Design the sequence.
C-alpha cells in the first residue's frame, strides 16, 4: 500500500510530493559524496511518474562526479540535498528522508548501500 509524502529543502525553494510504501528503514551510502553529506535516504527508488517537484527560479542545482551518471540535486539557496537520481537507476529518485515532513530520519534503522563499488 502506498502513502503520500511531502517534503522540501530547508528554505522551501524546492518542494516535492511522492507516493511510496511506508518508510520503515533508510539507507546510508558509503560513496564519497554520501559520506560527506551524512544523509539518510529512502531504501526504495521513486518512479518519476510518482513524484511531483516544484522549484522556485534558480533554486535547483545538480552535482555530478565520476561516471556522471548519478545526479545529486541540491538547493542553491540553502544548500540542502532533497533527492538524487542514483547511478543504479538514473531515471528514478531516492529521497533524503530528513527532508520529508513528519519523519524522524535519525530514529529509523538503516542499511549501508555499497555505492563505492558502482
Sequence:
Amino acid at each position: 500500500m502506498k502513502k503520500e509524502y511531502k517534503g522540501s529543502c530547508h528554505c522551501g525553494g524546492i518542494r516535492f510530493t511522492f507516493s511510496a510504501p511506508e518508510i520503515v528503514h533508510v539507507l546510508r551510502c558509503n560513496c564519497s559524496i554520501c559520506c560527506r553529506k551524512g544523509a539518510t535516504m529512502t531504501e526504495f527508488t521513486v518512479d518519476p511518474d510518482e513524484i511531483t517537484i516544484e522549484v522556485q527560479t534558480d533554486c535547483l542545482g545538480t552535482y555530478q562526479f565520476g561516471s556522471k551518471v548519478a545526479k545529486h540535486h541540491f538547493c542553491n539557496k540553502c544548500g540542502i540535498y532533497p533527492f538524487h537520481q542514483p547511478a543504479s537507476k538514473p531515471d528514478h529518485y531516492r529521497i533524503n528522508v530528513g527532508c520529508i515532513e513528519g519523519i524522524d530520519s535519525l530514529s529509523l534503522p538503516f542499511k549501508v548501500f555499497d555505492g563505492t563499488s558502482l
User: Anything to note?
Assistant: The chain has one helix and ten strands. The mean pLDDT is 93. The CA atoms of residues 85 and 91 lie 7 Å apart.
